[in-house]
Structure formats: structure tokens, C-alpha cells
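G., the chain you wanted modeled:
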Amino acid sequence: WVTFGHAFFSERFSKKFIEIVDQIYDLPETRVNIFVYIKQNGNIYYAELPVECNWKGPRTLSVNLKKVESDSDTFRESFIKALQHDAEAQTQVAHSYRDGDGVSKDAKQAVYWYQKAAERSVPAAMNNLAICYENGSGVEKNIKLALSLYRKAAERGYDKAQFNLALCYEN
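Predicted structure as C-alpha cells:
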């Protein structure tokens, strides 16, 4: 069993977790992010664990669980899928944070989740991340990066990115 604070994880989870950690334990240059989440009393708590940054000694891990602040079942279901690396769910979670749909508006969280989905080559996420960089919403304004993201999404046939790219060149 692995314990994070007062949360206990199953033997199956514990074995897999220890297996991953053993593979990278002596490689400080290796970064592995592990997402964990806990459902308790209708709430969801989650953490992204950059393992090499959090080890404080043999088999001791510092974990900062965050609570998902939403009463929307739809948002919470999408959030869990997003933590499991579902790129479409990551995009939906980003939209929710951007629009305040089922959760409080949070431009930085929107950027975070658009970035996760863009890393998985989701054109809509690339386009929306580009908009964030173009406008400086939740991130420092960066027109060069916005153009690059628009171009990548446009090359994948995403018509909104093609339009946005044309507008950038027009201006």
C-alpha cells in the first residue's frame, strides 16, 4: 500500500507506482509526471507528481493534492478523463476554465490544459492556445509562438486556425 496523507491506494496501484519509481530512482535527469486523483464524499482531489523533484528520501514522496472546485458532474467527469491523458477531455477542461462553464474562470488553468492537449496534436487546442498567446490571456503575450501554433493547427486542416493565421498575416 502507498499512503498520500490520509489516502490509501490499492495494492495494484502501489505495485505499479513503485515499479515506475524504481526505474527512475537513480536517474535525477529523468522526469516522470504521474497524475493521481481521489474521489471522496463527492469531491475530487488530484495531483501531478514530477517524481524527480519530489523525492525527499527513500520511498518518501511530497504530494500537494488540489481539490477540483466544481459542482458540475460533467466537468468532473471530463477532468478525470483529462488526468488520464484523454486529449479531447483535456481540451474540454480547458474550454471550461476559459469560459467558466461548470468551474470558475481561470485563464492560467485554461492555458495549462490547452498545452496538454496541444502536446497530443489536437488542432482545436493548438488554435485556442495560440489565441491565448496572441492576446496574453493566462500567459505572457507571444505573437511568434501564436503564429507557430496557428500554423500547426492549420496544417492539420483546422479551419478556424487557417482563418486566424490569415488574419495575423493580414495585420
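The mean pLDDT is 80.

Shout if anything looks off.
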